[in-house]
Amino acid sequence: MSGVLNGKVIIVTGAGGGIGAASCAVFADAGARLVISDLSERIAEPILEQVRARGGEATVIAADVGSEASVRNLVEKTVAAYGRLDGAFNNAGVEQQNIPLTELTLEQWERCIRIDLTGVFLCVKHQIPAMLKSGGGSIVNTSSGLGQVAIPNAAEYIAAKHGVLGVTRAAAIEFGARGIRVNAILPGITRTPLIARLSEDPNLAAFFNQLKLRHAMHRFAEPAEIGEAAKWLLSDGASFVNGEAMAVDGGFLAN
Asked: What is the pLDDT of residue 2?
Protein backbone atom coordinates (compact mmCIF):
# COMPACT_ATOMS: atom_id res chain seq x y z
CA MET A 1 0.00 0.00 0.00
CA SER A 2 1.08 3.58 -0.59
CA GLY A 3 -0.29 6.91 0.54
CA VAL A 4 0.38 9.94 2.68
CA LEU A 5 1.52 7.77 5.60
CA ASN A 6 3.56 5.43 3.43
CA GLY A 7 5.90 3.37 5.62
CA LYS A 8 5.32 5.40 8.78
CA VAL A 9 5.18 3.38 12.00
CA ILE A 10 2.15 4.58 13.97
CA ILE A 11 0.73 3.52 17.32
CA VAL A 12 -3.05 3.73 17.77
CA THR A 13 -4.38 3.40 21.31
CA GLY A 14 -8.00 2.62 22.02
CA ALA A 15 -7.92 0.84 18.67
CA GLY A 16 -10.40 -1.91 19.50
CA GLY A 17 -13.54 -0.05 18.44
CA GLY A 18 -15.20 3.18 17.37
CA ILE A 19 -12.87 5.98 16.27
CA GLY A 20 -9.74 3.94 16.95
CA ALA A 21 -10.80 0.98 14.84
CA ALA A 22 -11.98 3.15 11.95
CA SER A 23 -8.75 5.15 12.10
CA CYS A 24 -6.70 1.98 11.81
CA ALA A 25 -8.42 1.25 8.50
CA VAL A 26 -7.86 4.84 7.31
CA PHE A 27 -4.18 4.79 8.30
CA ALA A 28 -3.61 1.35 6.77
CA ASP A 29 -5.11 2.49 3.47
CA ALA A 30 -2.68 5.44 3.59
CA GLY A 31 0.28 3.04 3.85
CA ALA A 32 1.06 3.18 7.57
CA ARG A 33 2.62 0.30 9.47
CA LEU A 34 0.38 0.06 12.51
CA VAL A 35 0.65 -0.94 16.13
CA ILE A 36 -2.92 -1.68 17.17
CA SER A 37 -3.26 -1.26 20.92
CA ASP A 38 -6.07 -1.73 23.41
CA LEU A 39 -6.45 -3.18 26.88
CA SER A 40 -6.10 -6.77 25.68
CA GLU A 41 -5.04 -8.66 22.59
CA ARG A 42 -8.56 -10.16 22.46
CA ILE A 43 -10.05 -6.69 21.92
CA ALA A 44 -7.47 -5.68 19.31
CA GLU A 45 -7.19 -8.91 17.29
CA PRO A 46 -10.36 -8.38 15.18
CA ILE A 47 -9.03 -4.99 14.09
CA LEU A 48 -5.70 -6.58 13.16
CA GLU A 49 -7.56 -9.07 10.97
CA GLN A 50 -9.52 -6.27 9.30
CA VAL A 51 -6.36 -4.27 8.58
CA ARG A 52 -4.55 -7.28 7.13
CA ALA A 53 -7.61 -8.19 5.04
CA ARG A 54 -7.35 -4.81 3.30
CA GLY A 55 -3.61 -5.32 2.67
CA GLY A 56 -2.27 -3.35 5.60
CA GLU A 57 0.74 -4.14 7.78
CA ALA A 58 0.09 -4.24 11.51
CA THR A 59 0.80 -5.89 14.81
CA VAL A 60 -1.02 -5.97 18.15
CA ILE A 61 0.52 -4.82 21.44
CA ALA A 62 -1.85 -4.64 24.40
CA ALA A 63 -1.48 -1.74 26.81
CA ASP A 64 -3.26 0.02 29.67
CA VAL A 65 -2.60 3.70 29.05
CA GLY A 66 -3.16 4.46 32.73
CA SER A 67 -0.08 2.41 33.66
CA GLU A 68 3.35 3.89 32.99
CA ALA A 69 4.98 0.45 32.87
CA SER A 70 2.43 -0.67 30.30
CA VAL A 71 2.90 2.42 28.11
CA ARG A 72 6.69 2.11 28.32
CA ASN A 73 6.36 -1.53 27.24
CA LEU A 74 4.12 -0.53 24.32
CA VAL A 75 6.66 1.92 22.97
CA GLU A 76 9.64 -0.38 23.56
CA LYS A 77 7.94 -3.30 21.81
CA THR A 78 6.96 -1.04 18.90
CA VAL A 79 10.56 0.02 18.38
CA ALA A 80 11.75 -3.57 18.76
CA ALA A 81 9.26 -4.72 16.12
CA TYR A 82 9.75 -1.96 13.55
CA GLY A 83 13.02 -0.27 14.49
CA ARG A 84 11.46 3.17 14.82
CA LEU A 85 8.39 5.21 15.79
CA ASP A 86 7.06 7.92 13.48
CA GLY A 87 3.61 8.73 14.81
CA ALA A 88 0.94 8.06 17.40
CA PHE A 89 -2.79 8.54 17.67
CA ASN A 90 -3.46 8.65 21.41
CA ASN A 91 -7.16 7.90 21.31
CA ALA A 92 -7.87 5.63 24.30
CA GLY A 93 -10.47 7.02 26.68
CA VAL A 94 -13.58 6.49 28.76
CA GLU A 95 -16.83 8.42 28.88
CA GLN A 96 -18.39 10.46 31.65
CA GLN A 97 -20.74 9.03 34.27
CA ASN A 98 -23.56 11.45 33.29
CA ILE A 99 -24.20 12.55 36.86
CA PRO A 100 -23.78 15.93 38.61
CA LEU A 101 -20.33 16.90 39.83
CA THR A 102 -21.53 16.76 43.44
CA GLU A 103 -22.51 13.11 43.02
CA LEU A 104 -19.24 11.94 41.49
CA THR A 105 -17.20 9.68 43.70
CA LEU A 106 -13.48 10.26 43.96
CA GLU A 107 -12.98 6.85 42.36
CA GLN A 108 -15.09 7.84 39.33
CA TRP A 109 -13.26 11.15 39.00
CA GLU A 110 -9.80 9.60 39.28
CA ARG A 111 -10.57 6.79 36.81
CA CYS A 112 -11.56 9.25 34.09
CA ILE A 113 -8.60 11.53 34.77
CA ARG A 114 -6.20 8.55 34.85
CA ILE A 115 -7.28 7.19 31.48
CA ASP A 116 -8.34 10.29 29.53
CA LEU A 117 -5.65 12.70 30.73
CA THR A 118 -2.84 10.88 32.53
CA GLY A 119 -2.96 8.23 29.81
CA VAL A 120 -2.26 10.88 27.16
CA PHE A 121 0.56 12.34 29.25
CA LEU A 122 2.20 8.91 29.67
CA CYS A 123 1.92 8.13 25.98
CA VAL A 124 3.43 11.46 24.94
CA LYS A 125 6.15 11.14 27.58
CA HIS A 126 7.37 7.82 26.22
CA GLN A 127 6.63 8.31 22.53
CA ILE A 128 8.65 11.50 22.15
CA PRO A 129 12.05 9.99 23.07
CA ALA A 130 11.46 7.14 20.61
CA MET A 131 10.51 9.61 17.87
CA LEU A 132 13.55 11.75 18.56
CA LYS A 133 15.73 8.71 17.89
CA SER A 134 13.88 8.25 14.59
CA GLY A 135 14.50 11.86 13.54
CA GLY A 136 11.14 13.31 14.51
CA GLY A 137 7.48 12.47 14.35
CA SER A 138 3.88 13.49 14.82
CA ILE A 139 1.49 12.86 17.74
CA VAL A 140 -2.26 13.37 17.63
CA ASN A 141 -4.20 13.33 20.91
CA THR A 142 -7.96 12.88 21.09
CA SER A 143 -9.57 15.65 23.09
CA SER A 144 -13.22 16.61 22.48
CA GLY A 145 -15.45 19.57 21.79
CA LEU A 146 -15.83 19.38 25.56
CA GLY A 147 -12.15 20.27 25.76
CA GLN A 148 -13.27 23.84 25.05
CA VAL A 149 -16.86 24.09 26.28
CA ALA A 150 -18.95 22.44 28.99
CA ILE A 151 -22.28 20.69 29.41
CA PRO A 152 -23.99 19.49 32.60
CA ASN A 153 -23.16 16.14 34.17
CA ALA A 154 -19.74 15.60 32.61
CA ALA A 155 -17.30 17.33 34.99
CA GLU A 156 -14.69 14.58 35.06
CA TYR A 157 -14.67 14.20 31.28
CA ILE A 158 -14.60 17.95 30.65
CA ALA A 159 -11.69 18.41 33.06
CA ALA A 160 -9.74 15.59 31.44
CA LYS A 161 -10.33 16.77 27.89
CA HIS A 162 -9.41 20.37 28.75
CA GLY A 163 -6.24 18.91 30.24
CA VAL A 164 -5.43 17.02 27.05
CA LEU A 165 -5.17 20.37 25.25
CA GLY A 166 -2.74 21.58 27.91
CA VAL A 167 -0.51 18.52 27.53
CA THR A 168 -0.68 18.85 23.76
CA ARG A 169 0.36 22.49 23.72
CA ALA A 170 3.08 22.02 26.34
CA ALA A 171 4.67 19.17 24.39
CA ALA A 172 4.34 21.09 21.12
CA ILE A 173 6.34 24.08 22.32
CA GLU A 174 8.93 21.97 24.14
CA PHE A 175 9.75 19.68 21.23
CA GLY A 176 8.66 21.46 18.05
CA ALA A 177 12.19 22.68 17.31
CA ARG A 178 13.40 19.09 17.53
CA GLY A 179 11.10 17.75 14.85
CA ILE A 180 8.17 16.61 16.98
CA ARG A 181 4.71 17.93 16.19
CA VAL A 182 1.93 17.45 18.76
CA ASN A 183 -1.68 18.29 17.94
CA ALA A 184 -5.14 17.45 19.22
CA ILE A 185 -8.41 16.73 17.50
CA LEU A 186 -11.75 17.72 19.02
CA PRO A 187 -14.45 15.38 17.72
CA GLY A 188 -18.10 16.20 17.97
CA ILE A 189 -20.48 13.37 18.76
CA THR A 190 -19.47 10.43 16.62
CA ARG A 191 -21.55 7.46 15.50
CA THR A 192 -19.62 4.81 17.34
CA PRO A 193 -21.54 1.57 17.96
CA LEU A 194 -22.49 2.90 21.41
CA ILE A 195 -23.86 6.20 20.10
CA ALA A 196 -25.65 4.46 17.23
CA ARG A 197 -27.37 2.13 19.69
CA LEU A 198 -28.33 4.90 22.11
CA SER A 199 -29.60 7.25 19.40
CA GLU A 200 -31.90 4.53 18.06
CA ASP A 201 -33.43 3.93 21.50
CA PRO A 202 -37.01 5.34 21.36
CA ASN A 203 -36.59 6.70 24.89
CA LEU A 204 -33.52 8.72 23.87
CA ALA A 205 -34.39 9.63 20.29
CA ALA A 206 -35.62 13.14 21.12
CA PHE A 207 -32.48 13.88 23.15
CA PHE A 208 -30.17 12.78 20.34
CA ASN A 209 -32.16 14.65 17.72
CA GLN A 210 -31.66 17.80 19.78
CA LEU A 211 -27.93 17.08 19.93
CA LYS A 212 -27.81 16.72 16.16
CA LEU A 213 -29.25 20.19 15.80
CA ARG A 214 -26.33 21.57 17.84
CA HIS A 215 -24.04 20.29 15.08
CA ALA A 216 -24.38 22.78 12.22
CA MET A 217 -24.42 19.92 9.70
CA HIS A 218 -27.36 18.33 11.58
CA ARG A 219 -25.72 14.93 11.82
CA PHE A 220 -23.08 13.14 13.85
CA ALA A 221 -19.63 12.25 12.55
CA GLU A 222 -18.77 8.85 11.18
CA PRO A 223 -15.72 7.37 12.95
CA ALA A 224 -13.70 7.32 9.73
CA GLU A 225 -14.19 11.08 9.34
CA ILE A 226 -12.31 11.61 12.60
CA GLY A 227 -9.64 9.20 11.38
CA GLU A 228 -9.20 11.19 8.17
CA ALA A 229 -8.45 14.33 10.18
CA ALA A 230 -5.95 12.47 12.34
CA LYS A 231 -4.36 10.99 9.21
CA TRP A 232 -3.67 14.46 7.83
CA LEU A 233 -2.15 15.67 11.09
CA LEU A 234 0.09 12.60 11.18
CA SER A 235 1.20 13.15 7.59
CA ASP A 236 3.97 15.33 6.19
CA GLY A 237 1.22 17.42 4.60
CA ALA A 238 0.65 18.98 8.03
CA SER A 239 4.35 19.73 8.48
CA PHE A 240 3.79 23.26 9.87
CA VAL A 241 0.82 22.40 12.12
CA ASN A 242 1.91 22.17 15.74
CA GLY A 243 0.13 22.76 19.04
CA GLU A 244 -3.22 22.97 17.26
CA ALA A 245 -6.64 21.99 18.61
CA MET A 246 -8.50 20.97 15.48
CA ALA A 247 -12.29 20.73 15.79
CA VAL A 248 -13.78 17.91 13.72
CA ASP A 249 -17.32 18.50 14.87
CA GLY A 250 -19.57 19.51 12.02
CA GLY A 251 -19.85 23.01 13.45
CA PHE A 252 -20.69 22.11 17.05
CA LEU A 253 -18.29 24.67 18.49
CA ALA A 254 -19.40 27.30 15.97
CA ASN A 255 -22.92 27.37 17.47
From this structure: 65
